[in-house]
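Protocol step 6 of 9: fold each sequence in the batch and record its structure tokens directly after the sequence line. For illustration, a two-sequence batch is reproduced in full.

Sequence one:
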Amino acid sequence: MARRAVEALLVIWFLLLPLTASSFLVTESRRRSGETGDEVLGIALGATHSCIATVHPDGSIKIVPDDQGNRVTPAWVAFTDDGQRLVGEAARDQYAANPNRTIYGARRLLGRRFSDADLQRGVETLPYAVVDRDGMPYVRVEVGEDDVRLLRPVEITAAVFADMMDRAAAHLGRKVTRAVLTLPAHYTGAQLYATKQAGILAGLDVLRLVREPVTAAIAYGLDKHRGDARNILVFDLGGSTLDVAVLTLDQGMFETMASRSDAHLGGDDFDRRIAGYFVELIQRKHGRDVTGDDRAMHRLLRECERAKRALSDQHHVLVELKAVLDGVDLSETLTRVLFEELNQDLFLKTMASLNKALEDAELEKGDIDDVILMGGSSRIPMVRQLVKDYFDGKEPVNVDGINPDEAVAYGAAVQGSYLTGHHDDTTRCFLG
């Protein structure tokens, strides 16, 4: 009870005191540097990917791509032999040659103690070292023989935020620091605090922290509803995490009624199932084991991810890798039917989490007025069909121009536009 009370106080503090002493200093710095303050950033940091949207002076909202045109980018940070820091696609591209100094999934470490059971379950599979320092998790990176760095999760997250801020500056032609940051539905008070500290460390003026299901609902325009209370189910299947939340919208206020999270179920798991199939195929055909070659496995996983994405629009795709191993080429057709068979148990597992979220909210499926699918893996046809069938044919909310893997950042930018007066709205977001 005491812990819940402390977390409740933290939530109230975030809502009522958006400008702490630290963010006040950022605001002063922005004023002195001549920044106009007309634009606001909406930043969505996922467990595997990130996305950023901007509110322009005319009130329009746009997703900001990176220098390669990618609108959703890896939330990865890496260090080269000479200590150079890489973020995003550049960090992921060199992973095969540099796994021990490539960091991903840092969001899972934020605001947790080293002894946290879920944290311990996750770090067992990471290629980089997570160590205990005064009871807190630190990432240990050996850049060189005499350069060993202990990095806090807040610092790693701040590096991703800073890169996104730089991307927005390049896109807009000027620096913007004011931002709305998003958070998973299940985050604790300590994780809220750590996320805000990461934003401040990156140089952001954090206007507000908003739960991801709420920003998704805002992106799809559900905050405009002013009639009777509505129950909304948000199904978020991302790269490595499934989050299901049940919201109530009443008189302009969103409240989270229940949420369920599985930090070990997402698109990466589907990729590994496909990769496992081809590992066995190569073993049968060529008598070679791909799993013993880190570079080959990384290439195979990347190709399987590409194939998975293609199967959302196609019924079959060619999986092709030249010299996956010395003297071994891979060129095989993967059908959507086979993909679904390989992942059937994982798809059913997502439905179990959905059902538990409804039970926790003490609602029947017929009580749900709106269904929102978000996260890149919610594009998978089987996932969409299972959710539709569960709700007896109810179609998910759809708005032209809003993509499932961009909705959270878009909604955060909309919330930023409300806070800065670009749009007149009284929507309130309750974090609890």
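Sequence two, same batch, same settings:
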Amino acid sequence: MKYITVSELKEKLNQSEPKVEVIDIREEYEYEDDNCGWKNIPMAQILPRVNEIPKDKEVVFVCISGKKASAIVSTLERKFKLDNLSVLEGGYTEYSQS
């Protein structure tokens, strides 16, 4: 499993043509409270909506702390053989404090 730091993610997102997509797996009410405009697919909906995960670019999964994102990335890598996924270290909490 790959991890990405907040500074690495910000650098990738600031490129003129970002080759990364961020999927926020927090619950809708958490996302609505505070978000960065990333795609929101709550954790419970990830598997039924797996076809929405791009396969042609890096996809970073974000939750509050990084623990749930790690679990979902592990499942996706195992069940669907996806190898373009990573987890934001420290999750949304760390991102929002930077």
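Proceed to step 7 once all outputs are recorded. Observation for sequence two: DSSP finds four helices and five strands in the chain.
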